[in-house]
Amino acid sequence: MGSVGVARTFMGREASKQQGFRAIALDTQGRVEVKIFRHHRPSQSTHPIIPNANFAERFFAPARAQLDQAPSARVCPELSDDQWLLLGVRRALEDRPTGRGFLQHLLAYGLEAPTTTHFFETLKSQRRRALISECAHGLARSLPALEAEFWAGVPELDGFETSAGDGHFHAAAAHDSAAADDGVKYATGHCYSLHLRTHALAHLTVADQLTRQREHDMHALKRLSLEELRQGAPKGRQVLSVYDRAGIDFQQWHRGKHSGGLYFVSREPSGAR
Questions:
Q1: CB count, 10 Å around CB of 32?
Q2: Cα-Cα-Cα-Cα dihedral of 6, 12, 18, 24, to 10°?
Q3: Which of 51, 179, 218, 235 is the most exposed place for a label (fewest CB within 10 A)?
Q4: What is the Cα–Cα distance from 209 to 225, expressed in whole angstroms?
């Protein structure tokens, strides 16, 4: 209500059944204001994380199939790997600015949620991070290719795995530390790769947040091995990577071509000689 001071609240019998409750308030000029606050109805779903249980089973079936095969999977009675996986996906999909707000949203709708401390502690687990990486890459490799007609016009690429890469910066989180020299919270950089035959999106690496304020894409990509850049392509299969001008490094891609069958395509930068 802003600066309005609440004078009296009451529950009307019919209003409590249909609308919630009404609040009578006085604004700063003494005028009476009535507001209606509606109740949230708890979810009737038996699924602990997703309200629509049937949708959840179908949507998460491919990820759960990878979870069953993940080497890093463990039995955790308090917060199972299955629940943690679903929580993470829903956290990414929902427009909640903070982790606390996300957990409160789940509880408000009658769904299960770990405590705030437990939720954030699990995000620090190296095993859990390895688990999500195994599931994500396994799921990406399991996706079927697009219809053959999609690539019919470029038969020259029949022998290649093709991907498009790019860097992307995410705004700094509220709990991120500011830089010691200028007190600024810098955005966090990530490099992604989109497999053009399956449209599976994979996370390649996160930028250096300790020694560089905004790490260049190519500097981050150089930390990856040829196997990581090949994104699980079978041995003997050539890989074609399309990147913008930020990914140009002639020596790096020369090594990739001759040592790992990794080819690079981009546009020539304006200052190239």
A1: 9
A2: -20
A3: 235
A4: 20
